[in-house]
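Notes from hallway chat w/ T.B., transcribed later so I don't forget. T.B. wanted the structure written out for a chain they're using in a teaching module, and asked if we could keep both sequence and structure tokens in one place. Agreed to drop them here.
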Amino acid sequence: MDGLILALLILGVVTLLVTQYIRTEITALLSIAALAITGLLTPEEAISGFSSPATVTVAGMFVLTAAMIRTGGLELFIGLVLRLAKDNQNRLFLVLSILVPFLSAFANNTPIVLMMIPVALTICRRIDIAPSKLLIPINYLAILGGTCTLIGTSTNIIVNDLAQRNTGQQFGIFDFSLLGILNLAIGAVYLYVFGDKLLPHRPSGVPHGTHDRGGNFDTEVIVGPDSFLVGKLASDVFHGKTELTILEIIRNREVLHTPIDPHTVIAPNDSLIVHGPASDIRQLLSQEGVLLASVIDDAESPGTKHDEPTLAEAVILSNSPYVGRRVTRIGLNQLYGVKVLGIDRLGRPHRVLIRETRLKVGDVLLVESDVQGLLRLREAGGVMVAEGVQDTMIDREKAPVALAIMGGVITLAALSIFPLVSLTLAGAALMLLTRCIRLSEASQAMDISVLLLMAGTIPLGLAMIKTGLAVDIAHNVLAVIGSTEPWVLIGAIYLLTMFFTSFLSNNATAVLMVPIAASMAVEIGMGPLPLMVAIIFGASACFATPISYQTNLMIMGPGGYTFGDFVRIGLPLNILLWVFAMIAIPYFFPT
């Protein structure tokens, strides 16, 4: 009975995580509460995820990586790209194939991609290539680099912790590095050979620089009672005057005629979804009685001074306080003088009632402000401003200190002198003590959604072992496979993990798969480590869908990608690496 209850609970948690009907953090807390209330775990066991070495280690790694960024320690490496590429696309790819994976092997790959986006956009302008040709390769190289060391991703850390709990065995920091490097090499060669053919040639949605140079937007405006638009036919409003077109007319919160009836008369308080160049939109908004819908309830703060307006993209990150809130309620104009012109979601413009849209992770806000406003927005956290600003928070005098601390953590971890969790905590504390990062910045760097998800799902794995559900699933999987050959089992575990991670968080996938793999290993009498490695590499094979990993969502707007772009280039890569795993893992980790 307990197994059935747990299965239903896991199904509910997975459904909520996939649909994002409620926020990830809330789902995690509900999962903890449900495990304790149903009696599947004791209260102490239900909250054990908060004290898990994996959770604490990942929190420490967030701080270490943020300190490296804060001091410019990582910029020292990124600067090499601009010097070594020398405006040559082939040389650029070679440099990126070495640099990006190296950085992501020792730091969380999310901030690595975050830092590389503006660098990539600058390089694209210099050598005249579309950002869509470069950003997916950078993103995939960062993901592949994370499989080269134990600290490369939070997933590696959590699998290692759960493997130790369930099997008594664990990995060293470089135990699967050679396998990871070969995995990376296959991915890099694939991207080099097929990337240009499979990736679209598509400009970024945002004009480059502070002035308009093309680029169209979908924007919602409100027609005031005194507007020149009142009483005009929809077909006559912009005819022959500008490049603007009316996509939709919303009256009393309902869309009128799709497509628009050209004889529709515009009335006071109508909402118009208009499409066109930013310069024409600015001209329209300068007219009396025409208001930007997203700032209707967001009054401009007194005394705000605006310089030359700049267009930018602000990507909603997983730890953003704006997730789940309506555009008109987040106060960007009031706090920072930043106006929201439109929203892109999964590569497509969101058009209906933009001001009432509840924001999701990965949404791209098309914004306008002066450079100082965009800087304030980025420094406040929660969004990635991809264009139009420079980093003013760098304290380069502390870079040698930050590099020394990070190097010490990696060296001691490699020598296995101290536990990894102790080293990351000590490293984070030293970063704070030496003022490489401020306490407020360290708190902001810790992605609460990731940490709460880990704390909420780790007890699920414990419950799967305690109730026997993991054993039952393992037995059924073995029955379906019908073979105990190591390469078949490894391929099955990798394939299941890869499938679930395409739609579910890779951390949550790992938590659910480790107990199943451990039970499977016990049942057939093989060593568990090969199956754990399959989970580590399968959970990082999140290439085929943009929703499978947050960095996929981060690059969608700047790269101008669609959902289909990821499927077209990511699915073959998934299959290629799956075949490689079935061959290589039994060789490097014999059973």
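Follow-up for T.B.: Residues 216-385 form a domain with the Alpha-Beta Plaits fold (CATH 3.30.70.1450). Might be a good example for the class.
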